[in-house]
């Protein structure tokens, strides 16, 4: 049974076709520059050569049709035709307060995705276009919306409310929602299983450290806090996003630099984080580490601040849960940087965390325990797989 997973951005469409019998990826690919000059589809079928189609792709409808053509292409395809696709799972950024779980798309679901355009202005419109393009190209097939905010929906008010006038929550639903929810949900469950914990008696922390970065606290399988807020800007220091900062900085800089609030937000989203802090060395942690090893002081200070922030959140979430049984590192940095994992866990000896250096050095992109057997808290590397998580949710809701 094959599930097509779709992740639409404003000018892009990422896809994977997953055979759910063995959860293998039959093909994956990317349509880029939709509606812009130079658009193309790059299709990677398992066990066959990559296939690139360069042609005008004016909208997402055309992009979906191209994906279906590539999947069923006699030479480069992996299925006979669209009848071999059982259902389609869509990553949708924002479900607002309405949805705390994935759901089969109907008119009401589309209405809520539309109502949340304000909360996810870059992603939600594209996500809806992707759903409607699939409905048009594959009539009668079920589409499932998997919301990035759903996992955070179980947070209690003390974690999701901001200390601002109540009317803003009531009028505009200004609150913490949290993002990377599909990843936090998947990795926390994998961690509970891998660490041999009881789902109904577990306290775990997941540090999703990628280009975007966020951290979550989960008690008995339910998220109780997470670091991203109304938008993905809050929390940890990221590749180009600032994470937490004093909101008064915004007015100060707007006045002194003569920039608008939206220009300021662009700076905080695209020009800050380790990229901005290091004076523009790079948003890529490999470059940053190399610069640090070459003796660059700004790179060293940036790396220290990044690591410190992650450790600080782990401490806060341990307090929030009154303990922690296991901690997982995931995403590009978390799965690959033994250096960052070692430095973060150096802050956690007060919790009884002990790291097995050889295991930590050997853990790259695979499930592994990196703590010693006598460590009071299990520390693991758990690779994230958002596409598989979306496919599992889609199958569960449509079977
Ligand atoms: P993601 O957003 O999960 O795809 O993660 C992308 C980030 O992972 C990039 O910014 C890289 O800096 C980082 N990354 C990938 N491999 C390594 C590595 N071996 N060491 C440090 N960072 C890495």
How does this model look, in words?
The protein is of the alpha/beta class and 399 residues long. The protein folds into two domains: 2-147, Nucleotidyltransferase, domain 5, CATH 3.30.420.40; 196-381, ATPase, nucleotide binding domain (Nucleotidyltransferase, domain 5, 2-Layer Sandwich), CATH 3.30.420. It contains 15 helices and 14 strands. The protein has helices spanning 60-71, 107-115, 124-137, 157-160, 166-172, 181-194, 248-257, 261-270, 273-277, 285-293, 297-321, 331-336, 338-346, 357-362, 386-398; strands spanning 2-8, 13-19, 24-32, 40-45, 51-54, 85-92, 103-104, 142-147, 203-209, 213-219, 222-226, 326-330, 368-369, 378-381. An eight-stranded mixed beta sheet has the order 5-4-3-2-1-6-8-7, sandwiched between helices. A six-stranded mixed beta sheet has the order 11-10-9-12-14-13, sandwiched between helices. The structure holds adenosine monophosphate.
Mean pLDDT: 97
Q: Provide the structure class.
A: alpha/beta
Shape: globular
Order of helices and strands: EEEEEHEEHHEHHHEEEHHHHHEHHHEEH
- Number of folding domains? 2
How many E-type strands?
Answer: 14
Helical content class: 25-40%
Can you identify the CATH class of the largest domain? Alpha Beta
Strand order of the largest sheet: 5-4-3-2-1-6-8-7
Number of helical regions: 15
CATH architecture classification name of the largest domain:
2-Layer Sandwich
């Amino acid at each position: 049974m094959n599930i097509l997973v779709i992740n639409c951005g404003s000018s892009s469409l990422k896809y994977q076709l997953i055979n759910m019998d063995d959860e293998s990826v039959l093909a994956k690919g990317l349509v880029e520059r939709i509606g812009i000059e130079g658009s193309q589809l790059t299709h990677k079928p398992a066990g066959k050569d990559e296939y690139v189609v360069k042609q005008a792709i004016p909208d997402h409808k055309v992009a979906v049709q191209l994906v279906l053509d590539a999947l069923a292409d006699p030479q480069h395809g992996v299925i006979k035709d669209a009848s071999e696709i059982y259902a389609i799972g869509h990553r949708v950024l924002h479900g607002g307060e309405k949805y705390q779980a994935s759901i089969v798309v109907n008119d009401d679901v589309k209405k809520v995705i539309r109502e949340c355009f304000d909360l996810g202005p870059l992603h939600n419109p594209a996500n809806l276009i992707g759903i409607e393009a699939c409905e048009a190209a594959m009539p009668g097939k079920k589409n499932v919306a998997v919301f990035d905010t759903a996992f955070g929906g179980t947070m209690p008010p003390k974690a999701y409310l901001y200390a601002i006038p109540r009317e803003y929550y009531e009028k505009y639903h200004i609150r913490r929602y949290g993002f990377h929810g599909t990843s936090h949900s998947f990795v926390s469950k994998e961690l509970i299983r891998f660490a041999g914990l009881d789902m109904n008696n577990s306290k775990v922390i997941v540090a999703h450290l990628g280009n975007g970065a966020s951290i979550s606290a989960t008690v008995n399988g339910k998220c109780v806090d997470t670091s991203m807020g109304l938008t993905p800007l809050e929390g940890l220091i990221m590749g180009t996003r600032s994470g937490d900062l004093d909101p008064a900085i915004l007015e100060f800089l707007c006045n002194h630099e003569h920039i608008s609030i939206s220009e300021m937000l662009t700076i905080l989203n695209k020009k800050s984080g380790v990229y901005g802090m290091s004076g523009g060395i790079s948003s890529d942690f490999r470059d940053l580490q190399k610069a640090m090893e070459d003796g660059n002081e700004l790179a060293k200070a940036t790396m220290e601040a990044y690591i410190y922030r992650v450790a600080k959140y782990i401490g806060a979430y341990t307090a929030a849960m009154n303990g922690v049984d296991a901690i997982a590192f995931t995403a590009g940095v978390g799965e690959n940087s033994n250096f960052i994992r070692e430095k973060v866990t150096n802050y956690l000896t007060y919790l009884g965390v002990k790291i097995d250096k050889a295991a930590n050095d050997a853990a790259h992109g695979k499930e592994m325990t990196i703590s010693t057997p006598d460590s009071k808290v299990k520390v693991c590397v758990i690779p994230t797989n958002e596409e598989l998580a979306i496919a599992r949710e889609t199958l569960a809701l449509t079977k």
